[in-house]
Design brief:
The protein has about 400 residues and is α/β, with parallel strands linked by helices. The chain is built from 16 helices and eleven strands. Magnesium ion (MG) binds next to α7.
């Protein structure tokens, strides 16, 4: 009857780009929790054919895409596509109300630009798109009247503190950071840590690249740039605090000195769900924070000696232009090498720093220009990496 009609009226069609990754899988949990409110109309994965097929079987999207593998999935009622064309179609999917961009790395920029060019609201979990091409992404969103809905937990926290208004005034943003898996390892022992150690994040379960970026705090540097773009903040208006408990997901300070914080147990399901339901809040099946058990919450300044990648990121944030793009490319090359056991943990920062110092400034005015800067920086980082291994 009426309840059914009301629910039907608020049905949102969602295209999930990066459905087999950590965020994509959690997004499907959210969609599955409220089948009368959300529908996955398109799913796109990079190369995990088996998981994509299982997801397509369970969620019955109209379109399922495998971007970089040539395998076919046969399911009645589901159209299957491969390659770049399929990827672009899923990003700009006609029937989608919201496109969740949950691919990692530079690839997120193309996904976000495709979706925004089609006038789609973008739930943005990919931070690199704003780091590398924030100017392009924001001006396209503005031009098309499309929304950018933050999914990164810190930026969702800020968004919540600003009552879901990205343009609301504030005096400062206080971004919290866990400090990563190696926060208690003595600095002199950092050269000896293994990828396995660096991958044991104390509070969050995420993909490998971002977990290493949390250990180095390159991730937090990216998030500073992300906050500058999303909320029109100056670098001087953002403070980063190491907060071991990961209960305060970030805070906003206002002109009168009042500070609002968003708290909760560490889970990406809340920011994902909120990007779909805002300003409405629905149950997320998360346990409540047990404040009495927690006792104290701790906040500390960032130790610059422990986190050289964070300092490199801040200097790129200050310089702007293509520096953040070069930083990101060098970071991807260095972290992959560390994950393969080719370099020491402390060489991640060294490779990024050398790549930055050897890369000329380029143009950040178009996707093509950024893609060229990205590939040149990767090539340079690979050369530096080879020298470091030899
Ligand atoms: Mg985050």
């Amino acid at each position: 009857g009426r309840a059914y009609n009301r629910k039907r009226g608020s049905m949102k069609n969602i295209s999930v780009i990066g459905s087999t990754g950590s965020i994509g899988r959690q997004a499907l949990e959210v969609i599955g929790r409220y089948p009368d409110r959300f529908r996955a109309v398109a799913l796109c994965a990079n190369e995990s054919a088996e998981l994509l097929a299982a997801q397509a079987g369970a969620f019955r999207p109209e379109l399922a895409v495998l971007r970089s593998a040539d395998k076919n999935i046969s399911l009645p009622g589901v159209r299957f596509a491969c390659g770049e064309e399929g990827f672009e179609e899923a990003c700009a999917y006609l029937a989608a109300d919201i496109v969740l961009v949950a691919v990692s790395g530079f690839a997120g920029l193309k996904a976000a630009l495709c979706a925004l060019a089609a006038g789609k609201d973008v739930a943005l979990a990919n931070k690199e798109s704003l780091v590398v091409g924030g100017g392009l992404v924001l001006s396209l969103a503005e031009k098309k009247g499309a929304r950018i809905l933050p999914v990164d937990s810190e930026h969702s926290a800020v968004w919540q503190c600003l009552h879901f208004d990205r343009k609301a005034p504030f005096s400062r943003i206080l971004l919290t950071a866990s400090g990563g898996a190696l926060r208690d390892v003595p600095i002199e022992k950092l050269p000896c840590v293994t990828a396995k150690q660096a991958l044991c994040h104390p509070n969050w379960k995420m993909g490998a690249k971002i977990t290493i970026d949390c250990a180095t705090m390159l991730n937090k540097g990216f998030e500073v740039m992300e906050a500058m773009h999303l909320y029109g903040a100056k670098l001087s208006q953002i403070e980063v605090l190491v907060h071991r408990e990961s209960v305060v997901h970030s805070m906003v300070e206002f002109a009168d000195g009042a500070v609002l914080a968003q708290m909760g147990v560490p889970s990406m399901e809340l920011p994902i769900q909120l990007a779909f339901t805002w300003p409405e809040r629905l149950s997320c099946d998360l346990p409540p924070v047990d404040f009495a058990k927690l006792g104290a919450l701790h906040f500390e300044e960032v130790d610059k000696k422990r986190y050289p990648c964070f300092s490199l990121a801040l200097s790129c944030a200050e310089k702007g232009g293509t520096y953040p793009c070069i930083l990101n490319a060098a970071g991807e090359v260095a972290v992959q090498a560390f994950l393969r056991g080719q370099i020491k943990y402390t060489q991640i920062a060294e490779i990024i720093e050398s790549t930055l110092s050897q890369s000329p400034e380029g143009s950040a005015e178009s996707y093509a220009a950024l893609a060229e800067t990205d590939s040149l920086a990767r090539a340079r980082a690979q050369t530096i990496l080879k020298g470091a291994i030899a």
